[in-house]
Write a structure and sequence with these properties.
This protein has 401 residues and is mainly alpha-helical. The protein has helices at 38-47, 66-77, 140-143, 145-149, 159-166, 170-180, 186-197, 206-211, 221-231, 259-268, 288-293, 305-308, 340-348, 368-379, 386-393; strands at residues 9-10, 17-18, 254-255, 273-279, 282-287, 317-318. It folds into two domains: 9-202 and 383-393, Cytochrome c-like domain (Cytochrome Bc1 Complex, Chain D, domain 2, Orthogonal Bundle); 254-267 and 294-379, Cytochrome Bc1 Complex, Chain D, domain 2 (Orthogonal Bundle), CATH 1.10.760.10. It is globular, with a radius of gyration of 21 Å.
């Protein structure tokens, strides 16, 4: 049995996440007999369905093991896997921040190079297919290649360059032999990273205990009303599916919500001033020309079209899961909406109303009180083991030398 871990919550300003207990105490997240360590617990978690979630799908050719999980965690944190040894996977998917990044709307790669999209959480990525905002990959075993070689992410000249490093490093030589009985290779690198990511499973939220666990007290009245609105008047469930046995809150499909079109219109017609946050709750308006003078040119983002080059796929983005949504801000594919209320307001007014947007996106007429209730429901999707996952992730110092 896992010990209960303190669930994170937001502060009174709606911006600053607070933890009921800090700093993280790994002992709270351990079982009584912890002789095998965190990786054994992680392996067990990936093999044991959690309330509200289906069983983790493990590929037949990549059965999980403690050795693969330990190796995958080490790879995930190792900055030496970038061209100048400064960037790791964990720098965009921060364990203590819901395995995303709260401070940045869009990710930043090697030498401060801008990435035009927000870092999606990798919590429960085991259940997602396809992956990325535009669905350009379909498996955890292969999705890592693009960040490794992207010029604005880890910027390696090739994936083979990284494999060659792994086969020169004594620690990795031993760990690959323990995990696979073979030297490092591109496929084994992907299998180890995937095995670790499939342990980042977070269910058993208050909503799950209420809907799937039979605990009528797990949700307060506001959250229960919010669920009724979510599945009824708000029509959110049309894309964020809720099943009878489990719920991933996504249809794994692509939709034009109008948001991508709206952001491109804003890119082409920038405002005279832009709001800059100096500190939590402290903003100033700055002449946009001053910001543009020291910034890279913002790229257009055509969504799914950039994968298929089918004009019908312009502005389409994958429906994200809503699990742990309160802990994975900012929102939308480019992170330009900072709060859940910003997102709810966008959908309540029916998006921008551009001609090609999905007919599902239309004015909803929800009152402020109803929006409050939906937000309360979304907050009930936060799992209690997030700080335990972060503690496991930090079980060893990263390799930065």
């Amino acid at each position: 049995m896992f010990l209960a871990c303190a669930a994170p919550a937001f502060g009174s300003d709606g911006q600053q996440p607070l933890y009921a207990e800090a700093p993280i105490d790994p002992a709270r997240c351990a079982v009584e007999d912890d002789s095998q360590g965190w990786a054994a617990r992680a392996l067990n978690r990936s093999l044991t369905p959690q309330l509200g979630l289906p069983a983790v799908p493990h590929p037949a050719d990549n059965a999980p093991s403690i050795e693969k999980i330990e190796l995958g965690r080490k790879l995930f944190f190792d900055r030496r896997l970038s061209i100048n040894r400064t960037m790791s996977c964990a720098m965009c998917h921060v364990p203590e921040q819901g395995f995303t990044t709260w401070e940045l709307q869009s990710a930043v790669g090697v030498e401060g190079r801008s990435v035009k999209r927000n870092s999606p959480t990798i919590l429960n990525s085991a259940f997602l297919n396809p992956l990325f905002h535009d669905g350009r990959d379909v498996a955890l075993e292969t999705q890592f290649v693009a960040p490794l070689v992207a010029r604005n992410e880890m910027a390696n000249p090739s994936a083979g360059w990284v494999v060659a490093f792994l086969n020169r490093d004594d620690d990795y030589i031993g760990m690959f032999q323990q995990a696979f009985g073979a030297d490092a290779s591109l496929d084994r690198l992907g299998q180890a990273l995937a095995a670790y990511q499939r342990t980042l499973v977070a269910g058993d939220s208050p909503f799950d205990r209420w809907r799937y666990g039979g605990d009528g007290t797990a949700l307060d009245q506001a959250a229960a009303r919010g669920f009724d609105l979510f599945t009824g008047k708000g029509e959110c469930v049309a894309c964020h599916l809720v099943g009878d046995q489990d719920a991933m809150f996504t249809d794994h499909a692509f939709h034009d919500t109008g948001y991508g079109f709206m952001r491109e219109d804003q890119r082409q017609n920038p405002p005279k001033t832009t709001r800059v946050q100096l500190a939590p709750g402290v903003f100033v308006d700055v002449d946009f020309a001053h910001v543009a003078a020291v910034s890279a040119v913002r790229e257009a983002d055509l969504g799914r079209y950039e994968v298929t080059e089918d004009p019908a796929d312009r502005w389409l983005f994958r429906t994200p899961t809503l699990r742990n949504i309160a802990m994975t801000r900012p929102y939308m594919h480019d992170g330009a909406l900072n709060t859940l209320r910003d997102v709810l307001d966008f959908y309540n007014r029916g998006g921008p109303g551009h001609p090609g947007q999905s007919p599902l996106i239309r004015p909803l007429g929800l009152s402020e009180a109803e929006l409050d209730d939906i937000e309360a429901f979304l907050n009930s999707l936060t799992s209690p083991n997030l700080d335990c996952l972060a503690a496991e992730a930090r079980s060893h110092p990263p390799d930065n030398h």
